[in-house]
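Hey, quick one: can you model this chain's 3D structure?
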Amino acid sequence: MKRFIIFFLIIISLNNLSMADEKKAYFAGGCFWCVEEAFEQTSGVIKAISGYTGGYVKNPTYEQVTYKNTGHYEAVEVVYDPKKVSYDQLLDIFWKNIDPYDAQGQFCDKGSSYLTAVFYQNDEEKNAFENSKKRLGKPDIANFVTHIKKLDIFYPAEDYHQDYYKKNPIRYKLYKNGCGRVERLKKIWD
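Sure thing. Here's the predicted structure for all 190 residues.
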């Protein structure tokens, strides 16, 4: 029995150590399905969770965020290991997966919930956002319309939105390609 208790305590301690190495970052890049996919394919990212942030309605639903004026963005919470991927690298991935010039939304999704933003948790992340824009080397950076906002509360989206690209690969590819996302991103970033 004594060995079991010691083993159990060691397992709990190791689990707590691994959780201490995790950090979270928050990005809004239009359709959260696409943003989630981009981050989940990144080495060092543990998981990406689709959800809502930036608004004033508590526990919003997809219908409220999309069709009512809640102030929320479709966003993604990125849980990552900072020893394997840096916040700056996450910002680079974010930029390469959005159209920073579109003030109406992203690709075929239009409306305030589809605008782009980085939600920072501290001054370090806020400064990293500003530096990341400069690092892109775009001469027309003044035309970027991506917002920088202080994170308040992140609400996970409904289960059917989580890992949509994995659960519904055919529908997802039809949506992503039909919206012209891939072609527009190539035009901006290649």
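One thing worth noting: Residues 66 and 114 are 9 Å apart (CA to CA).
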